[in-house]
């Protein structure tokens, strides 16, 4: 199958500090890939390079056939097709829940107000929050905020969803509701790249687990291979600490 | 003459002059806000030249006293170019340029106070930088900026008195003309001081009430 995301020799430096030291990853359509690894290993930076929230220092990243490292590529067009969910939700506090979801489709003229509203309600229903449409984000719990953030990321009908530690800022009792929505998305065939510390989710939902450390991919494979029979000593160390 | 007598004799002149003061303040603040928004946005831009342009303007204005700027614009420029400026126009230009630099700093600080995750989330949806600023970052930044804008409003209102030196008939100029006639220095300056005090206190109370009204979702 053709790659949905194709990363070749990706390098990312912040000043003199090289955070990603040449990454090669192919992600197929409909695949759910979990990135695990210790903090500072470059997982989030890697994810943020996939929609160029981080300026890419070297190598190529091809998403949906568009080389996003090429200056000629209209990055905004590519981003419409890549939803992103952040650790700290980043909902817009000046807009209501439904306005948060409708903002991009309306501003980017994807749909008129009526269509956008209808779509937003569908998405809210999907994440179980249709009764919160007209409240401001400050009134929501963490889990509800993250579900709205997922709905917002889905509003442009993306083919790819990026999740940057989506449950790390949540109280433990709220993690489940967010993972449930993500599982549903995975079951619907969404291509997903998930940076996570939720090993249960990685084991259960993903097609592939990538273990990163020190800016490299140390080991990757099917979740049962990585979790049951890790090969590299650093992977073993990490999994011993977190499991 | 008693204070009441002075007020009876001069209230029309004083109120008209207060009107001129407010006119000058409001017009200048409108222009200063536009200048401030423009240079504030340039200042937070990632493009280096924009940053430099904004800083040159802000540093130049902040490094020159308002009275010198006003003399330069009202007396200097007409001599060099032959274009005679009306005192109101020269006053508005001086005050706008002056307050604009401070507004630019207020805008910059306001934008920088907003978590950068807000811009990232907006950009990740495919919104261009300008749209993300207009719909997401600036509406939040303006809320943060309101107390500083009120403060700048008050400073600009008081700064109008400096423009009495170019002969613009605002409140301070009107006061000195009246005093030149009646020699009631103590009482007249007291009256004028109280007039400024009343207007500024009232305006800042109104602004505070406005500030409370536009807080959302809380």
From TrEMBL, chain A:
> Where does the record place the ABC transporter domain?
5-239
Sorted alphabetically, the keyword list is: ATP-binding, Nucleotide-binding, Transport
Question: Which InterPro entries does the entry link to?
Answer: AAA+_ATPase (IPR003593), ABC_ATPase_HisP-typ (IPR030679), ABC_transporter-like_ATP-bd (IPR003439), ABC_transporter-like_CS (IPR017871), MetN_ABC_transporter-like (IPR050086), P-loop_NTPase (IPR027417)
Q: Name one GO molecular function term.
A: ATP hydrolysis activity
Q: Which Pfam families match?
A: ABC_tran (PF00005)
Tell me which domain of life the UniProt entry assigns to the organism this sequence originates from. Answer: Bacteria
Gene3D superfamilies listed in its UniProt record: P-loop containing nucleotide triphosphate hydrolases (3.40.50.300)
- Fetch the PANTHER family from UniProt: AMINO ACID IMPORT ATP-BINDING PROTEIN, ARGININE TRANSPORT ATP-BINDING PROTEIN ARTM
From the Swiss-Prot or TrEMBL record, give the protein name: Amino acid ABC transporter ATP-binding protein
- The species is Lachnotalea glycerini
Classification from the root reads:
Bacteria, Bacillati, Bacillota, Clostridia, Lachnospirales
Automatic annotation (TrEMBL), chain B:
Query: Sorted alphabetically, which Gene3D superfamilies does this protein's record hold?
Result: MetI-like
**Its GO CC terms?**
ATP-binding cassette (ABC) transporter complex
- Where does it live in the cell? Cell membrane
Keyword Cytoplasm appears in the UniProt entry: no
- Gene Ontology MF annotations: transmembrane transporter activity
Q: Which UniProt keywords apply?
A: Amino-acid transport, Cell membrane, Membrane, Transmembrane, Transmembrane helix, Transport
Q: What is this protein called?
A: Amino acid ABC transporter permease
